[in-house]
Amino acid sequence: MGATTGRVLVVDDEPNARDALAELLADEGHDTRAAADGAEALELLEDYDPDVVLTDLKMPGVDGIELIERGRTLAPHAAFIVMTAFGTVETAVAAIKRGAENYLTKPLDMDTVSALVGRAMSRAQLSREAARLREQVDTRLSIGGVVGSHPSMQRLLKMVEQVARSRASVLIEGETGTGKELVAAAIHHASPRRDGPFVRLNCAALVESLLESELFGHERGAFTGAVSRRRGRFEQADGGTLFLDEVGEMGAATQVKLLRFLQEREFERVGGAETLRVDVRVVAATNRDLRRAVDEGHLREDLYYRLNVVRLEVPPLRARRSDVPALAHHFLRKHAEANGFEVQGFTDEALRALIAYPWPGNVRELENAVEHAVVLCEGRTIGLDALPELGRGRDDSGRHPGPADGLDARVPGLTLAEIERVAIERTLDAVGGSTAKAAELLGISQRKVQYRVKEWSEP
Ligand SMILES: Nc1ncnc2c1ncn2[C@@H]1O[C@H](COP(=O)(O)OP(=O)(O)OP(=O)(O)O)[C@@H](O)[C@H]1O
Ligand SMILES: [Mg+2]
Question: How far apart are CA 40 and CA 42, in angstroms?
Answer without folding.
Answer: 5
